[in-house]
Design a protein that fits this description.
The complex is a heterodimer of chains A (360) and B (517). Chain A is α/β, with parallel strands linked by helices. Chain A has one domain: Rossmann fold (3-Layer(aba) Sandwich). Helix content of chain A is 33%, strand content 18%. Chain A contains twelve helices and twelve strands. In chain A, the strands form two sheets. In chain A, strands 1, 2, 3, 4, 7, 8, 9, 10, 11 and 12 form a ten-stranded mixed sheet that branches. Chain A has a two-stranded antiparallel sheet with strand order 5-6. In chain A, strand 2, helix 4 and strand 3 form a beta-alpha-beta unit. In chain A, helix 3 packs across helix 4. Chain A is globular. About 13% of the residues of chain A have low confidence. Chain B is mainly alpha-helical. Chain B has a domain of 86 residues: Alpha-Beta Plaits. Helices cover 44% and strands 9% of the residues of chain B. In chain B, helix 4 packs parallel to helix 9, helix 9 crosses helix 14 and helix 10 crosses helix 12. The longest helix of chain B has 29 residues. Chain B is elongated, with a radius of gyration of 27 Å. Classes of the chains: A alpha/beta (360), B mainly alpha (517). At the A-B interface, helix 1 and helix 5 of A face helix 10, helix 11, helix 12, helix 24 and helix 25 of B.
Chain lengths: 360, 517
């Protein structure tokens, strides 16, 4: 045995560093510790308590802000300049269009034509994101749990036709993995055929953004590209939902944020708060097939009703309010539609608007 | 001539190691399951592995066709010796590539009798298997390596990549680079959900320990400990073609120095007096790496057909040692079976869908962790205490970590031994793995008057096993509110755990799945 001490050699240093790196990796690997870049369901946003009385909300959120400020490199970011601009219609253009007919593609085109064409929203070189509802990876589109692939593909074609630089389609399913959900929903095949891209919403690409007008939440982790794209087209499928009553455009935006389950407390106000920053350029509601019960997952064809309708508007509140009428409800019956209207994010009263009904 | 063959061996070794890594990623979080047939391939190394096949067939007392390919490895071993160890085994290759400078001199002080440990271990494993116990397959080299890769290396790799990407993504000018990396890696290489496993430190300790032992001798694990090596070594005693010393031998012992597994014995005669008869290659310890043939200065060695079985060595298992091994195996099984966990079923012991009988499962599970690797939600976790001593590192479902996806049947598809039945998707959806129940003392609508229906929303069964009752109640602020309170219809619940997984309550979920449905 040698007894003299040798200085740390380069290879010795490398071995030590490797050992340190491996142990650091292990430290992060145990499922008992919080993950910095964990899956969406594990991430914790600052707000976990429910604001039971609206009066308390302000207090709680300031606490949250402080907590957020303390978390280094988790500082909230202002989405200023990132929100999409929803263009107001001219007098000839419909404020909201509802097209009915059996040819899904023709129905989508007719609805958009009434609004003044996709060119009103998508300009040459625009980066477009389409956000359908792909909530689970176990039902084919007939079950009406996921957005109709033809609607998504048709929008993709239209956007590319209007000169969009690229069209990305994405959602974050709560049941199953996104890649398999994209495939089973039929959306992946249809979108790729139309020339669009499917993007897996990576857990690393969420950032915490301020919600300056938020009443229940003051900041949340949102998928950055959703805010930064030139155009965001929200394409929900109209569905039953036990708490919200219906899943429509604004509710569909929960698929763009982390920890959507935490939104479920004080759901109506929190969805409205999210709408105030996400502001889709265009909302197209797929009501070709709708799910009347056991939503949002479904799984029985008995719960599916064929309505052959597509609704489109730049105003997410108006579109949702119209969507509610398909289920025999009014916009004011749905908390998140009502709250969004109260925040001035759109118009609830359809009678005051130029609504165009088209039969194809 | 042998230099070329040696090169061929190295290429084959690299190819098999690359195949191992490729299959590791091909089966990652369900990448390879489904119609493309990769599900069969992901378990390739286990299907040709004679030790797990023999042990599982002894333990389950049935012929497992999916593991029958091990006969090919056995035939090859009888023909050519331990080529598996020298040419195929990914752990063996890894241990060959990790070389410490002191290993050769350290090895001299290790007595040859230590080689008997692996035969002893093999005997213990097979005796325990006769009692239906496969616990020690955790030491089967492929299971050991796959488990370390699944629960330690891949998650660590993901933490590193995700962590650095998330940091870089904060800098706007680096975002395009992160976007590019993401679109290239997310899915095929990086799973969508960050994999994380229960107490990976123990798995890592075993794995790093096996590698660190190389410091004592090259391929220490393969020489002295590997139970699969023992089985193949034992078969190699009757192998037909073996490397041998020829007439031209000058007794220079270069071959013995070159031999990594230390399989060449030199009788202690002075170099001048040495001849071919003094140098002996132990067939049961030789991994057919061909290094000796290449090192021979006189071209005095070659692969020759031999009809005589090899004579026994002093480290072969004696009758006395075999009886000791039998006693250890039996006592170990008795100890494991007297664990409380094997008597009173643990409510946390939720097995993957398709497992019907716990004992039958324990007698078939190879502890290979392929199921944990493919699980898209990382719900399947290695058991520590939950399944008792006998079920260490077998898969259990931890619903708060992940849920059994209604659209997935990958675990059964990849299970090499059929311990998890390969159910068609429709059947898997009916397979009950547990039952959910609501904790009304914690549930938001029940306990605090706060609206929440997440569990009902998530429930994937078409008729909803979780239903809601609308009531009017007074909330914590004293206001009258309309609430929907969840309850479970036990007949419809399949125990998938998505309700528990998504329950927004902090800490323990207010709806939990319990085993024993």
């Amino acid at each position: 045995m040698k007894s003299q001490k040798r200085p740390l050699t380069r290879s010795g240093f490398l071995k030590l560093s490797a050992a340190a790196a491996v142990s650091a990796g292990l430290w992060g690997c145990s499922s008992r510790t919080a993950q910095p870049a964990a899956g969406p369901d594990q991430a914790a946003n600052e707000i976990q308590q429910d604001d039971r009385a609206p009066a308390q909300a302000a207090n709680e959120t300031t606490k949250d802000d402080r907590a957020a400020a303390q978390t280094a490199n988790q500082a909230t970011q202002s989405p200023a300049g990132a929100t999409h601009v929803a263009t107001e219609p001219t007098t000839e253009q419909a404020y909201l269009a509802a097209a009915h007919g059996e040819d899904v593609e023709a129905v989508v085109k007719a609805a958009l034509a009434a609004l003044g064409g996709i060119e009103r929203f998508v300009k040459q070189g625009h980066d477009v994101i389409i956000k359908p509802n792909i909530c689970v990876d176990y039902h084919t589109p007939e079950y009406a749990a996921t957005t109709n692939p033809t609607v998504v593909a048709c929008l993709t074609t239209l956007c590319l036709g209007a000169g969009a630089k690229r069209v990305r389609v994405m959602d974050m399913p709560f049941g199953g993995a996104p890649d398999s959900a994209y495939a089973i929903s039929g959306i992946e095949e249809a979108v790729k055929a139309a020339g669009g891209e499917m993007e897996i919403m990576s857990p690393v690409k969420f950032s915490k953004f301020d919600i300056p007008e938020g009443k229940s939440i003051k900041n949340w982790e949102i998928y950055r590209a959703i805010l930064e794209a030139d155009v965001l087209i929200d394409v929900p499928i109209a569905k039953h939902h036990s708490l919200a009553r219906l899943t429509l455009g604004a509710k569909n935006l929960l698929g763009t944020v982390k920890s959507p389950n935490q939104i479920h407390q004080n759901l109506g106000q929190r969805i409205a708060d999210l709408v105030s920053v996400i502001r889709p350029t265009l909302t197209v509601i797929d009501a070709v097939r709708v799910l009347m019960a056991h939503g949002p997952t479904g799984g029985s064809l008995d719960d599916v009703k064929q309505l052959n309708t597509v609704i489109a508007s730049h105003d997410i509140v108006a579109a949702d309010a119209y969507g509610a009428t398909l289920f025999g409800l009014k916009g004011a019956d749905i908390a998140y539609i009502k709250k969004s209207a109260e925040m001035g994010l759109g118009t609830l009263d359809l009678t005051s608007l130029k609504v165009e009904e088209i039969n194809v | 001539m042998w230099a070329a063959w040696r090169r061929v061996r190295q290429i084959v070794q690299i190819a098999f190691f690359a195949l191992f890594v490729a299959l590791l990623f091909a089966g990652l979080q369900r990448q390879g399951s489904g119609e493309n047939g990769l599900d069969w391939v992901t378990g390739f190394f286990f299907r040709i592995n004679p030790l797990s096949a023999l042990a599982a067939m002894l333990a389950g007392r049935e012929w497992l066709g999916s593991l029958g390919w091990a006969l090919a490895t056995i035939s090859l071993t009888i023909l050519l010796g331990r080529v598996w160890c020298g040419w195929t085994c990914p752990l063996g290759s890894l241990l060959e590539w990790v070389h410490f400078r002191r290993a050769r001199s350290n090895a001299r002080s290790i007595p040859a009798s230590l080689r008997s440990v692996k035969y002893f271990l093999l005997a213990v494993i097979l005796i325990a298997a006769l009692f239906g116990n496969l616990s020690l397959l955790i030491l089967e080299p492929l299971a050991l390596l796959t488990r370390a890769m699944t629960t330690v290396v891949i998650p660590g790799f993901n933490v590193a990549i995700n962590g650095s990407e998330a940091t870089l993504y904060n800098l706007s000018f680096l975002r395009p680079a992160v976007d590019w990396l993401e679109s290239a890696l997310r899915g095929p290489v990086l799973p969508v959900k960050q994999p994380a496993f229960n107490a990976p430190g123990w798995v890592a300790l075993l794995f790093v320990g096996v590698i660190a032992l190389n410091w004592l001798a090259d391929r220490f694990w393969c020489r002295y400990l590997c139970p699969l090596g023992a089985l193949l070594g034992w078969l190699s005693k009757i192998s037909i073609f073996r490397p041998g010393i020829g007439e031209a031998c000058t007794g220079c012992t270069r071959c013995a120095i070159a031999c990594k597994p230390g399989a060449i014995r030199v009788k202690s005669a002075s170099e001048a007096a040495r001849s071919a008869a003094d140098i002996h290659i132990m067939a049961s310890e030789c991994t057919v790496c061909l290094d000796c043939l290449n090192s021979c200065a006189k071209d005095g060695m070659g692969i020759k057909p031999v009809t005589q079985p090899e004579k026994s060595h002093e480290f072969d298992l004696s009758r006395r040692q075999f009886l000791q091994a039998a006693a250890v195996g039996t006592a170990g099984v008795l100890l494991a079976r007297s664990d409380l966990r094997s008597r009173a079923k643990n409510s946390a012991l939720i097995r993957p869908p398709g497992v019907l009988d716990e004992n039958e499962f324990l007698a078939k599970c190879l502890r290979c962790s392929e199921c944990m690797k493919v699980c898209p939600t990382t719900a399947l976790q290695p058991a520590l205490g939950e399944a008792g001593l006998e079920g260490l590192w077998t898969p259990i479902l931890m619903a708060r970590v992940g849920y059994c996806d209604y659209g997935c049947n990958a675990c059964g598809q990849v299970c090499p031994s059929g311990a998890i039945a390969a159910l068609p998707l429709e059947e898997k959806r009916q397979a009950v793995i547990g039952k959910a129940s609501v904790n009304r003392n914690r549930c938001l609508p029940w306990a605090s008057g706060i609206p929440c229906i997440v569990c009902e929303e998530m429930c994937p069964t078409p008729q909803k096993a979780i239903r809601l009752e609308t009531i009017t109640a007074v909330n914590e602020a004293g206001e009258m509110v309309e609430l929907q309170q969840p309850y479970v219809l036990r007949d419809l619940c399949i125990g998938c755990g998505i309700c528990e997984n998504h329950c927004p309550l902090e800490g323990e979920a207010a709806i939990r799945v319990y085993a024993g449905g």
